[in-house]
Amino acid sequence: MDFFYIGVMSGSSLDGIDIALLKQDDRSRLLATHYIPMPEDLHAELLGLCSSGVDELARAAIAEQKWCRLVAQGVQTLLEDQNMVPAQIRAIGSHGQTIRHEPARGYSIQIGNPALLAELTEITVVSDFRRRDIAAGGQGAPLVPAFHEALFDDKKDHRAVLNIGGFSNLSLIESDRPVEGFDCGPGNVLLDAWIQSQRHESYDKDGEWAASGEVDQALLQKLLSDQFFLTKGPKSTGREVFNLGWVHHHLFQLPTLTPEDVQATLLELTALTITESLQSAQAITKELLVCGGGAHN
C-alpha cells in the first residue's frame, strides 16, 4: 500500500519554510516541494524570540499562529499543484520553529501549534521531535542524522554528510554501528547576522563579501577559544551561544577591523570548525556529501 506524507521544516537561518510531499511504498520518494520565503516581519519576530525580552509568552503565541497559518497555506498550495486533497495525506511531520535550544538546562523550545495546523489543513500532524531525546539525556539535535542514515544506508563505510544551515552539523555513517551526529558550530548564522548589521543584506551571496576580506588570526583564535569548540560530541548549540553579541564581545578586545575582514574570519571559523570536527570524530572519510544553504557559499 502506498502512503503519502508531508514534511515541514523551518531551520535556524529563519530564511524560509520548506514543504515536501513524499510517497512511501518500499522506499521513500520525493514527489514535490514548495518553498515559502519568510516574511520580513515574521523573521524579525522569530529572531526576537531567540533571546529574552518583554512579554515573551504572548509574542511567541502570536508569532506561532502567523507561522502556522503560513505553513497551512503552503500545504494547500502544494496539494493543489499536485491535484491532491487532504484526505490522501496520511500525516504531516512538522518540526516547528526553534526559538530556544539549551539541552544542558533540559529544554528545547519549538513553536508551531500542531493542533492549529491539523485544524487548518484537515490532516493529522506529528510534531515535538526533540523533547523525548532531551528527557533521556540526549541533545535533541541535530535531527537530520536519522534521515541521513535511512537515505544512505547502503553499507558503505567512512561516509560523512555535512549539513550547513544556520549551524553546521555532521552525520557519520558506518556499516557496523549506529549513525553518529553532532553540531560543529556556526554555519551561516554569524555570517548572516554580520552582513545584516553592516550592509543590511540578508546573506553573503556566494561568500563574495567574505572573499573580499582577509582572515584576522587574532580574532579567529579568540573565537576558537569558546568552550563549545573544545567539547567533544555529542553536542549541539544555538543562537543562545552564537549570536551578534558573541562576535562583538570578541571584537571589543581587539584593534578595529574592517567589516569585510570580520566576515572573512567568521567564514574561516565555519570552515575550520567543520574540518576539525570531522578529522577528530572520523579519522578516515572516503566520501563527504555536503547539503544545506551553506553548500553554495
Structural write-up:
This protein is of the alpha/beta class and 297 residues long. The relative contact order is 0.13. It has two domains: 3-135, 2-Layer Sandwich (Nucleotidyltransferase, domain 5); 144-296, ATPase, nucleotide binding domain (Nucleotidyltransferase, domain 5), CATH 3.30.420. The model has no long low-confidence stretch (mean pLDDT 93). Helix content is 38%, strand content 25%. The strands form three sheets. A five-stranded mixed beta sheet has the order 3-2-1-4-7. A four-stranded mixed beta sheet has the order 10-9-8-11. The protein has a two-stranded antiparallel sheet with strand order 5-6. The longest helix is centred in the first third of the chain and has 26 residues, at 56-81. The chain is built from eleven helices and eleven strands.
